[in-house]
Transglutaminase-like domain-containing protein (Streptomyces pimonensis), 284 residues
Amino acid sequence: MPAPRPPSPERSAELRRRFAEEARCERPGLSTLCLLVGAEADGALDEAGMDAVEMELDRLAGELPYRPGSPHAWAVALRELLGERYGFHGVPGDYQRLESSLLHEVLRRRRGLPILLSVVWMEVARRAGAPVYGVALPGHFVVGFGEARAGQVLADPFDGGRVLTGADAELLVAGATGAPLDASMLTPAGVLDVVLRVLNNVRAWSAARPEHSGVGLWAVELSLLLPSHPARLRYERAQLLVQRGDFRNGARELEAYAEVVAGVDEPTAERLRSQARAARALLN
């Protein structure tokens, strides 16, 4: 994928309006939200391209066996279809690529980060009627089938959909955190939690590449449109605005965030106000 080419300001405003609207639906659509993220990243992704992704997910779901049975049978059916027949998987180098976080590119390349490959698994399985959900293990996203606490089966789309044993899951968690697997880690992830984690990955990609601070800015701004998000994202947005030379708006955001934290941490609020004054001084 070439250097990210953003959409026009008018297109971006429309995408963000739709993103905020979808995020506040009673049942927000995972693929819809991920495609809106993709369209914010890639100005070439138009409405026809977004529709094509949804149709491809429908087509893949149609190739699954009709209700294969147990959670384990569902996991095996998805592995055989997506991992073995179509070759969806991940490799370490995918962590260095922005397109690994964009659903339309993951479908095209059949490669991506664990969470985006899991989105493909979940959306295909959901369309076919599977009892599927995401599981946000520390450091590695996987999918679950069946009841979360009884009879749960986990699969790792990054590894081609390999069905995980309990020992496999424990090793994944231990490798990421050094801590043992806890039952709370196996709780199904909500749609908005998945989308926020996708945007976190985009922000991390941008943070390592200062020349792409614009990518980090739109990822923060989309995150702020979610009904629930970390308040500190406002500080990150302010820093990015200042970094990009928008000193006036960066100072305003710093001052607004200072008001948020002033009631619980006045010294931090004063440091934020000082940063805002420094940003305004750069206007002179």
Summary: The longest helix spans residues 191-207. The two ends are 39 Å apart (CA to CA). The chain has a mean pLDDT of 92. The chain is about 55% helix and 5% strand.
